[in-house]
Amino acid sequence: MRGSLQKRLVEKLKNEGYIRSERIERAMLEIDRSIFVPEKYLHKAYDDIPLPVGYGQTISAPSIVAYMTELLQPAEGSRVLEVGTGSGYQTAIIAYLVKEQGHVWSIERVRELSDMAREKLKEVNLLQYVTLIVGDGSIGYKEGQPYDRIIITAACPKIPSFVKEQLKEGGIAVLPVGGKYEQRLAIVHKQRDHELNIKYDISVLFVPLVGVEGFEVN
Ligand code: SAH
After folding, report:
1. Nearest ligand 1 atom to alpha carbon 213
2. What pLDDT, in 10s, does the model give residues 66-114?
3. CA angle, 199 then 202 then 207, to 5°
4. CA of 193 to the centre of ligand 1 (A)
5. Least CB-packed of 37, 54, 69, 95 within 10 Å?
6. Using CB atoms within 10 A of its CB, is residue 157 exposed (0-12), middle (13-18) or buried (19+)?
7. Which residues on neighbouring strands pair with residue 57, listed in sequence order?
């Protein structure tokens, strides 16, 4: 049952251009999204839609997870910072791609979500490649820097200043930038002169990044 529905979803994401590489196709086939979806929404686990995970937060649509991963290009051995662990699904996809030499640091402000993600990552045998942190990721996470890749899965009003500081030279960051109701995916390259080269891609809708360099909590 799971196998065929998930295969169909991955085929669809390939046809629509969200999945472009074999590596990411394999990761999307290997990691079962239903593990990261609350029981209440299991019947929608293989639909290409975001779903509530509690605490006002959502698990992103699989097309967005696949597409952001394609833009991020996590290599085997990459050191990756993720801001906004949420369900842990995107974390799992990245961890699958960077293991064994790589590592993912993933920061989440809601402790309950981080704890749930820990259980799920254990279930898919990827927890050993991930450090989960509870805290404000709008200032990044200094302990793991410099990072080859930074992914932010919450909407940023602007590119947070930590991206430039904590990204390695030649590194890539992918994040949604814009207002509360619409953002564009920004693809950021840190050049040799340490300046950021920024390109904007598709429109997306993420929950807001809150904290000192994000939106205010209200
Ligand atoms: N990639 C996740 C989507 C997470 S939604 C998934 O597919 O499941 C965005 C998450 O960012 C939410 O869980 C929210 O609590 C978290 N978040 C918002 N602001 C944050 C901040 N300043 N630091 C850490 N996490 C934050």
Report:
1. 22
2. 999 999 999 999 999 999 999 999 999 999 999 889 999 999 999 999 9
3. 105
4. 31
5. 54
6. middle
7. 54
